[in-house]
Amino acid sequence: MIKQDSKVFNGFRHIFLALLSLVLLVPFYLVVVNVFKSKEKIVSNPMSLPGSGFTFDNLINVAVSPSFKIMRAYGNSFLITAVSIAFIVLFATMMSYVIARSSSRLMKAIYYVLLTGLMIPPQVLLLPLVKLLTKVNLMFTFQGLIFYNIAWYLPFSVFIYTGFIRTISTQLDESAKMEGAGPFKIFWRIIFPLLHPATASVVIFLFLWIWNDFINPLIILGTKGGYTVTTGIFMAVGKYNANWDQVFSLMFLASFPVLIMYLFMQRFIISGLTDGAIKG
C-alpha cells in the first residue's frame, strides 16, 4: 500500500514538474520564434513558428544599429563579469579556507556576519552605495560596479566554498605540514585544485547574476560610464518603443551567452552544491 501511494505521489510530482517546466519555457519560446519573424507576423501571431517567413534581418539590423552597439555592450559586460568573478573566486576561496580550517569563535562570528549579507535586500544599499562611490570618485565607472559586485556576491561564494572545504579531509593539510609546506603553499597546491566542482557552481551562478544585472549597472554606470547588455537594451528600446522585432532580437542576443555558459557548465552545478551541502 505504501509503495503504491509512493508511486502515485511520484507520478503527480513528475506531471507537476513537467507542466511547470512548460510554463517556464514559454518566454524562451516566444523569444526564439519571434526573433526570426517579421514585425507584421510577430504582431499578428506571436506564438506561431516562423515558417516560410524565416529571416535573419532582425538580428542583422540590431547588430549594426547605431542606437545600440551590441559588440560594445558585449565587451563591457564580459569585462565587468570576468573581472568581478575572478576577484570573487580569489577572495572567497582564501577566506573560506581560513574559516573552514579554524575552530576559533572569532572566525565563526566572521562567517555568520558574512552570511547576514545574504539576507539584506540590494535595494536597501543603493542610496548609501551611491554616496560612498561618489565620495571615492568611483561613481559612473566600471571600477565602482566591479567593487560592488565583489562585495555583494562574496557572502554567497564564501558560503559555498566553506561548506565544500569542510568535506576535504584535514589529513591532507597535516601531511603537507609534515613535508614542510606552509599554509599558503598548502592552499594553492593542494586545496585549491580540489575546489573545481564548487568553483564551477560559483562561476555559473555569478555569471548569470552579474551578466543579467540591470538595476546596479543602470544606477552606478548611468549614462556617463557606458552600458552593459541589459542597460543598453533599455536605452535602445526606449520607454514608448513598440518595435517588437527589435525587442526580441535584443533579448535573444543578450541571453545567448548565458545559454551557452549554462549548456557547457550545467553538469557541474548540482555536484558542486550538493558536495558542499554535506557539511555546509
Derived from helix and strand composition plus strand pairing, the structural class reads: mainly alpha
State the shape: globular
The biggest beta sheet is recorded as: none
CATH superfamily of the largest domain: MetI-like
Give the % helix.
over 70%
Unreliable segments of 5+ consecutive residues: 276-280
The CATH topology of the largest domain is given as MetI-like fold
Q: Mean of residue pLDDT?
A: 84
Topology:
Layout lengths: L1 H33 L4 H6 L12 H7 L6 H32 L3 H12 L5 H14 L6 H24 L5 H8 L4 H9 L4 H17 L2 H6 L8 H9 L6 H34 L3
Summary, kept brief:
This protein has 280 residues and is mostly helical. It contains 13 helices and no strands. Helices cover 75% and strands 0% of the residues.
Q: How does this structure look, described?
A:
By secondary structure, the chain is an all-alpha fold. The radius of gyration is 23 Å and the shape is globular. The two termini are 37 Å apart. 75% of the residues lie in helices and 0% in strands. The protein folds into two domains: 2-55, no CATH class; 65-277, Orthogonal Bundle (MetI-like fold). Residues 276-280 have low confidence and may be disordered.
Keywords:
MetI-like fold; disordered C terminus; 280 residues; mainly alpha
